[in-house]
Amino acid sequence: MSGPILAVSNLGVELQRAGKTRRVVDDVGFALAPGEVLGLVGEAGSGKSVLARALVRAISSPLEIVSGKVVFEGKDILSADRRELMAIRGNRIGFIGANPMGSLDPRLSIGSQIVEKLRSVKPGIGRAEAREKVLELFGRVRIPSPDARFHEAPFQFSGGMMQRVMIVDALVSDPSLVIADNITQPLDVTVAAQIIRLIDDLRQSLGTAFLFISSSLPVVAQIAERTLVMQRGRIVEEGRTEDIAANPGQAYTRTLISRIPPIWNNVSAPVATEAEAVLKIDNVTRTYRVRRRNTFNGFNAVKAIRGVSFTVKARENFGIVGESGCGKSTLTRLLAWLEQPDSGCIAFLGKDLSQLSSRSLTEFRKSFQLLLQDPYGSLPANMPVQRMIEEPLLIHGVGKAEAARLAQEAMAEVGLSMEFAERLPVGLSAGQRQRINIARALVLKPQLLILDETLSALDQVEQAELLDLFTRLQATHGFSYVFISHDLALVRRMCHRIAVMYLGRIVELADNATLFEHPHHPYTRALLSAMPTLEDNRFPRSRYLLDGEPPSPIELPSGCSFRSRCPRAQGDCQRIDPPLLVIDGGNAAACLHMHEALTEKETADVE
Amino acid sequence: MTDIVRENAVPPAAVKRGATPTQRMLQIAFARSDFRIGLIGFGLLVGLAILLPLVSSIDPVKIAYSSKLLPPFPAEGWKWPYLLGTDQLGRDVLMRCLVGLRYSLLIGVTTVVLMFIVGCSLGLYAGFRGGWADAVIMRLTDAQLSIPMIILAITILGVSRPTVPAIILVLGLSGWPLYARVARSVALGERNRGYVLGERVLGASDLRIMLLFVAPVVLPPIAFVAVLDIARMMIFESILGFLGLGVQPPTPTFGNVIADARKYLLNAWWIATMPGLFMLVSLTCLNLMGSALERARNAVLRGEA
Fold it and tell me: Could you tell me which residue ranges the ABC transporter domain spans (chain A) (predicted)?
């Protein structure tokens, strides 16, 4: 078959609101060959998702398709009648979205829902045949034990597994085109990398074409042969992905690329320095008791944090990275003393927090502050901005007038204009809200700020601005920061020393340069290999990427908890649970075979 | 798609301090005609009940056999100033109804305020604290809910004298668990919200978080529904009066007036009917207001306003 399966020309979509119209998609034209993967990149709000919907005419008021042609397999979708459209949507064109957990009915088993979908778009298929087909695809997307999982409900699946289910859902009717809209966004890096690898395998074996939409060029670059760059509803650049990445033709593309933080090439990694300790965590554990289902009085012990120790020094940025479920959030709550550890000791400025009276603890709280992840939920909705910033001072007994003065100073310092002072937070952007949160912490004159994914809800521009703000505040006030994040690029840019967590334990603790350039633990390497980047990854995926997902923290493997996924697990890993073994320069890794790892790294460099 | 909509939806105009959800609810309610009708009717009745017995020279408990069983205004044989007629002992029915309404309102409103305060503070505490406090308070409410109101009333009012505070106590006791439950369920949801965590980090005490942040979110919606409960409590008050467990004669209340007038239903229907009519009108007005407030609340919570 030759000629494109999808040819779009002069497509325009308008948004009508309050009597005004705005072009959301403007004069878009492109073609997609059979079996090709076409990337579509653009910032949030550039019209990518609207375009994706317009291609299958899934557009409703206030949006309206005003011009253009979408020719799919020789038929114009925009002028097709309802029945023709039904024969194409969900049947010849599959769709995968960014919200896998919300896409299926929570009450029904996933298998039956996909069978039903298949039978509704292809009425000729019998129940048994449809079931066969779904099971076969479950196997192909590597869902373990497909027969059993066929009958499970959506809540029993993790996000990554659910995204595989959605891929099956899109592929089940043998479509010739699949539109994948931001599918890796909600996933952890290693899982996202697995999904991308999976899609790459599938399209090679099935010959399906993909339109792969993402806001991140590195993500698209992993899979797409050609890429479209979209800005304000227009395609501003089109070409082979490598060419676009290497020599972008348009200013907009260049800006996009310049915002991608470098990982290996010309980075000036922050260098760790010696200073007195601010925060000292010593062998801290935290276990939750969760009621076991179907028992009267049974409990499962979820070991969220298992013996974590580290020290944060003055004026230092300390990073903690790991995937979801590794205990980052629990550790955050322990560090902020919102929960107390079961054992071990958290000492701040040399004082063990568990020994403090509640009054001196309240006093102490001023000096370590936590900035939360969600900028929307973390501010009380019906309090004016300035009053919100005064609040911490009022708690600690500062007078009204003094509090107002300090709050206004803080607002100026974090870059909030005074016109916000009397406003409610409604309608403020995520970045402005995080500035309010920073101001609230700032007025207390803390020494340590804990940032729990504080920047992950922000776009690249806002992120960069706030990082500058953090650096400036550190220079003027001498803060120490603890960055808790899943974003390795951010950690690479900001942190002096970094701890990598896996299943409630630190598996590697090293300074920035060592961690990114000569990591010792296989898990660290897997994380780095999964990172989407335009540079040549020093840890090629074919070699380092992990399969599967972390085991449940209820039933940990004996010995080294990483051994169930470790590429170099050996007999002794089953017996010995390695502690953090000191290497040199204060770095440490928890691996019995890390010196073998070192030699393997050298071979990787040669490649 | 959401990105685009959001980008366009950001209102650049300043949001003033005034536009809290509570105020929006009140605005919506005021715009509804059923709320206005209810408010005007209820206001008139309350005004009458408070003012008329003060300015009038007629004593609602003074017996005058000479003018007994006079019919109400349009009927033949009525006499000024007995607009609604007189009862079997020659007392003015209008004045007795108004005094009855006074007691009914006094007891109804005070009981609801009491239930609201006790129920909501216990519920808020239980929901926010969780753990043991929650378990103990909630088992207490369960225990309280399992005792029928009438049995509780007969026990308490039968043993002690049925005075106004005693009646309020009985009604309040039987009503607070509902408030506790609702407040608890909302507080449970708020407890894990980001802003609560944020306040904890800043060092705020639980009491401060509860009173300053959680209560303003939790209480107003419940308060709106509580208006409907005033009507319910007024009915209970007259049931107690009817059973002889309410405020004791000679003080007239809806309940005891109707109970006494039962014997004269056939030849002097107005004695029992007029208090019933007063109750009907005042309860209808209250319910109109209550349901308008509730609809306004739902509209705001659904994000329509």
Answer: 6-257, 279-528
